[in-house]
Amino acid sequence: MLTNPCYEITKFGFDGLHKGNYELAKLKDNEVLIESCAWSLNYRDLMMIKGIYNPKLKLPIIPLSDVCGKVIEIGSQVKNFKLGDLVCPNFMPNYTSGPLLKEHVQNALGGAINGVLAQKLKFEETGLVKLPSNLSAVQGATLPCAALTAWSALLEYNKCKPGDTILTFGSGGVSLFSIAFAKLCSVKSIVVSSKEERFDDLKRLGATHCLNYKTNPKWDDDVLEITNGIGVDHVIELGGANTLEKSVKVTKLNGTISLIGVLAGIGSFNPISVLMKAIKIQGIFVGHKQMFERMNKAIELNNVIPVIDDKLFNFNNVPKAYEYFEQGQHFGKVVISKD
Ligand SMILES: NC(=O)c1ccc[n+]([C@@H]2O[C@H](COP(=O)([O-])OP(=O)(O)OC[C@H]3O[C@@H](n4cnc5c(N)ncnc54)[C@H](OP(=O)(O)O)[C@@H]3O)[C@@H](O)[C@H]2O)c1
Prior knowledge:
Elements: E1 2-9, E2 17-24, E3 31-41, H1 43-50, E4 66-74, E5 86-89, H2 102-105, E6 120-124, E7 128-130, H3 137-140, H4 143-156, E8 165-169, H5 173-184, E9 188-192, H6 199-205, E10 209-211, H7 219-226, E11 232-237, H8 241-250, E12 251-259, H9 272-276, E13 280-283, H10 289-301, E14 308-314, H11 318-327, E15 333-337
Parallel strand pairs: 8-9, 8-11, 9-10, 11-12, 12-13, 14-15
Antiparallel strand pairs: 1-2, 3-4, 3-6, 3-15, 4-5, 5-7
Helix pairs in contact: 4-5, 7-8
Bound molecules: NADP nicotinamide-adenine-dinucleotide phosphate (NAP).
């Protein structure tokens, strides 16, 4: 047995996050041992620690889904990885291709099973992907959840085309990756964000229009005006039931809404316009390993660089990273590096 430092949620709330030791059994022939280099936080991790994501979550649990690590040992049957490779686990390590099945959902890191906030981790090689060569480990730690979700919404479950327009919400992880992937497909993106001081940054990253949902509650009318009354082709719906009505209003006939998040809380929703506009609503739950590999090729070819918040945390101040993330002042991904 190898012991290694980790964090565990022992009870809901930030005061329930404690350092522990994660015991790893001996490496099997098909497994890879990695040394974690960096982790990133997702909104899900915040909901998880507060007990909102799953009030019945079995505790204690090691949190987080996102890590990038260096391969330090391989089992005798491992074919696709070598010592020193930088790798990420897939969000559901056993979800390698095809339709989403119950057993994949039951394998989601940092939720259904222990997550990755430990210094050493082991995975079957089928659960890992190599990092795009243009990214550092810190940048790579942003990919497993937010990036893959944006990628699968725009390019796997749906196929956005040059000239399309998308709508996305906020300046967090999924939204900024959506803007980046839209840009590389020559797709216009309208962003609703409360961070007006970052609108120039959003435009530099590829957003074609920025609207402030706090000071301009009628942003939906502006989206229609921008699109000449037609509406957008695709909404990256991160707000949830409370923004869905506006999303339906600004989606064009036969357009698509990818249901991804619940940032604006749980509300009620009248579905009539969805049928009358023949809108397709697609639920998204991250994606599988083959999607991750396709995304990594696109990231490498187009030199897509993830946006990381200016504040970087380390393994010893993880609770501070959670607190900072909760304040919602971040722009891009909040990353924790190993030292
Ligand atoms: N289904 C899936 O597979 C999947 C995967 C990943 C994430 N998600 C979900 O997607 C959402 C985004 O996750 P994330 O990790 O990217 O979050 P994040 O990095 O924490 O970003 C959150 C940002 O959303 C914006 N926001 C907050 N409240 C809003 C509201 N009422 N209306 C519009 N924008 C609002 C804010 O941007 P401004 O400060 O710019 O206003 C905030 O910074 C979460 O609900 C998460 O659970 C789902």
